[in-house]
Specification:
The structure is a single chain. The protein is mainly beta and about 400 residues long. It has a single domain, classed as Porin. It is about 5% helix and about 65% strand. The protein is globular, with a radius of gyration of 23 Å.
Length: about 400
């Protein structure tokens, strides 16, 4: 097994971040650093039906966040990197198993107008990470996503507001199709009573697909391009049941490729002294990374969170998801169990268990073309967090801070 050369380098970077003097302030610039050392047992490393490859992985994750906050402006930039070392497969060792970055901006332009923007990038060797809660498997291959989302909210009165959101994203999968998604959402919300809020939204979505030569080689045809357009109008009702309980219902028709299908979302949350309960159901049109078509997904996701003490938290989240396309159907059953123990304000132990079972056929992505893919992952890690905030900018006599 190769020597873990990447550990000293990453640890040195983190140590340098913590060397800066710490002066905390309510506003102004800030710097947060974190480091996670995790051991994971994978019984199906390549997410294949045969589940013939297992291993123990050591993962080191340095993280950095920096930003600036005032009463009317918030800027934040985040970076994280996963380096992995394998006990039995040293040829898989890598310093860039996962790379993520994000930039967020929110600003109050006037008393009635809020503006925002979000930019995110993710590169990972686990494509299921880009398929959201459905967790549809696509093997162990490099997948990338770049997404940009500007937003604007205009308060038309004390109880109502208008909102607009535009989005663009690009997904890439080695050996699979590339997709670009453009969205536009316009919404009108109004507070009906102190407990009730109504909302109507219009959504336009356009997804363009481009198959690569490697993705179409098995079928013997040339790379192809296609696209799908969808529009939906949804009506939502949000009800505050108590100080810790809420219900949201959203439904409406979705028009796509000459068909009409329901767009539905239901969310129920109930909180008690040490327990939080949540239940969500969702039916929507979505993309699957590497697949040259959109799928209709139904999902049910309950979750229970338990905090017996201030430093101990436990959560369990089963889930069932069905995705259908013109080329088939797949069902994913998931179960997530998480435990976290805060040793102090900057140090925590975390453990998790993940089980995913995928059944059925979906499209032409090679790793999706078999009947069943089962995957179990156990992780135990040590998390270190250090928040560092610099001094506020000096105040200019008779004016604001420069």
């Amino acid at each position: 097994m190769s020597s873990p050369r990447w550990k000293p380098g990453c640890a040195a970077v983190f140590a340098a971040l913590l060397a800066a003097p710490a002066v905390r302030a309510a506003g102004g610039p800030y710097l947060d650093a974190g480091l996670a050392l995790t051991g994971a047992s994978e019984d199906n490393l390549f997410a294949t039906p045969a589940a013939e490859t297992s291993d123990v992985v050591t993962r080191l994750t340095p993280r950095l966040e920096s930003g600036y906050r005032t009463g009317r402006l918030s800027l934040a930039a985040r970076l994280a990197l996963d380096a992995e070392q394998f006990r039995d497969h040293p040829d898989l060792d890598t310093l860039q198993a996962r790379r993520s970055g994000a930039f967020e901006l929110s600003a109050r332009a006037t008393r009635a107008i809020d503006l925002g923007a979000h930019l995110a990038y993710l590169s990972t060797l686990d494509p299921a990470e880009l398929n959201g809660p459905t967790g549809i498997q696509a093997g162990r291959r490099r997948a990338r996503r770049l997404a940009v989302t500007p937003t604007a909210t205009f308060r038309t009165g004390p109880r109502s507001d208008l909102s607009a959101e535009a989005g663009w994203s690009r997904d890439e999968l080695t050996g699979g199709a590339t997709s670009e998604t453009g969205t536009l959402r316009l919404g009108l919300a109004r507070r009906i009573t102190p407990r009730d809020r109504a909302r109507i939204d219009y959504l336009y979505e356009r997804i363009a697909f481009q198959e690569t030569e490697s993705a179409t080689a098995a079928g013997g045809g040339p790379p192809g391009a296609s696209r799908i357009e969808a529009q939906a109008v949804t009506f939502a009702w949000e009800r505050t049941l108590s100080s810790r309980s809420a219900l949201t219902l959203r439904a409406g028709p979705r028009f796509s490729e000459g068909t009409i299908d329901p767009e539905i979302a239901i969310e129920l949350h109930h909180g008690m002294r040490n327990v939080d309960l949540a239940l969500a159901y969702d039916r929507t049109l979505a993309g699957v990374v590497g697949l040259p078509e959109a799928v209709v997904t139904d999902g049910i996701a309950p979750k229970v969170s338990f905090r017996p003490t201030r430093r101990l938290s436990i959560s369990a989240a089963p889930g069932w998801y069905r995705s259908r396309s013109g080329d088939g159907e797949t069902t994913v059953r998931r179960f997530d169990l998480d435990l976290s123990i805060a040793l102090n304000d900057d140090l925590a132990l975390a453990a998790s268990y993940r089980r995913s079972v995928q059944d059925g056929l979906l499209g032409s992505v090679p790793a999706l073309a078999d009947e069943r893919i089962a995957r179990d992952t156990i992780q135990v890690g040590l998390l270190i967090h250090e928040g560092r905030r610099s001094r506020q900018a000096p105040q200019v006599p008779g004016g604001a801070a420069r």
